[in-house]
Amino acid sequence: MTTVGILGGGQLARMLALSGAPLGLRFLVLDSAQDACAGQFAPMVVGDYTDQAALDQFASNIDVATFDFENVPAESAHWLAERRPVFPSPRALAVAQDRLAEKTLFLDLGIPVPDFAAIGTRESLDAALIKIGTPCILKTRRLGYDGKGQFRIKTPADADAAWTALGPQADKVGLILEGFVAFERELSVVAVRGRDGEFRAWPITENWHVDGVLSASLAPARVDDTLSATAIGYASKLAEALDYVGVFALELFCRDGVLLANELAPRVHNSGHWTIEGSETSQFQNHLRAVLGLPLGDTRVLGHACMLNWIGAMPDANAVLSEAGGHWHDYGKQPREGRKVGHATLRADSTRELADALQRVGDSLDRREQVAPVIARLG
Ligand code: ATP
Ligand code: MG
Ligand code: MG
Fold first, then answer.
1. Which residue of 111, 133, 196, 377 is most buried, as measured by CB atoms within 10 A?
2. Do the beta carbons of residue 314 and residue 345 sit within 8 Å?
């Protein structure tokens, strides 16, 4: 009996545990929150990632470790890696934890990125504003997620407000200024690399964000083969360079037909949730296979899929459940503003059927603005 340890007990850990059950796997989750939603399906060690007693208990009861959360302190990941196999490696995790290290690696590999500059002081912000220009975004280098730790600078006059908001964190988590990309699309590559170096990618996903939080994903994205091959080529190069093992997502902006890399998520990713029903093998299943050194599953799509995120509170399930290709995922979390509490995936054999299903669900749940950009793309 193999036990997979997961650092972090959110919905990603929960879906990993659900996906691993048919493989006969056991799980152990480490999270500081007693009511972490993965705990409904897997035993937990309740403790902080730096709590030595909790780490000891966790390490001694698992065969291999992986992450639901990328911001586990590097020292804890290293400590664990000395005792048990850890995938992805602490080195890959460290790069993906830091927007500056990440963007520097992208550039080294010939992957285009938005203009950026490291910011340490108010003077360096002023200098970078001149170099990069406005609009731009000041971001924390570490610990940001769902658009948190970001300040959008529309004109130079916003610099004071940006510094008031994020300057106090400059020493602790570091800051980076990025040029604002007026993209026509946001895309992601969700891919997996096995312990033996085998690489597979799912077809490209198009994503829509609202206030920095993912709202909807469409797969396969309606992009041409050249763009798709370029995006997957970037993901493959990155995975190779980091000797990455497991699933990851590369987030990309597409502006004037050119791809710019935004960030690397070193874990299963929200923009890959559609793979549960929309692909031969889900990202969760393939992540576990990769981490355990098992053969990877086929990443081909089954028709067309759209994932809709539920933020704050769950809507009524019936509108989705009454669709032929409707699938419901309730993470079992308490409602809270801005919190990802669940998602739905609609799957169909044609883009036309998918658009019709989205229209019905959008009307019925009064969420027309959430489905509208996807329907527009499906044409
Ligand atoms: P995630 O939840 O994906 O980890 P995050 O907090 O790490 O989010 P980003 O991915 O950097 O944040 O930004 C969130 C969203 O904000 C992006 O998906 C994009 O829509 C927008 N955004 C971020 N950076 C830029 C940029 N430089 N130009 C334009 N839009 C941007
Ligand atoms: Mg991120
Ligand atoms: Mg992101």
1. 111
2. no
Q: How many CB atoms lie within 10 A of CB 302?
A: 14
Mean pLDDT on 148-162: 95
Give ligand 1 pocket residues (Cβ under 6 A): 114, 137, 144-148, 178, 180-181, 186, 209, 212, 251, 262-263, 265
Q: Which of 262, 263, 311 to mutate to test the pocket of ligand 1 (most atoms within 8 A of CB)?
A: 262
Task: Decide the pairing of beta strands 150-153 and 185-193.
Answer: unpaired
- ipTM comes to 0.98
Residue with tokens 């698992």: 62
Residue 120: predicted pLDDT:
95
Q: Give all domains of the chain, ordered by start, each with its CATH number.
A: 3-86 (3.40.50.20), 115-179 (3.30.1490.20), 185-378 (3.30.470.20)
User: Distance (Å, rounded) from C-alpha 140 to C-alpha 174?
Assistant: 6
User: pLDDT tens digits for 244-264?
Assistant: 999 999 999 999 999 999 999
Mean pLDDT on 155-161: 96
Radius of gyration of the chain (CA): 20
Residue 147: is its pLDDT beyond 90?
no
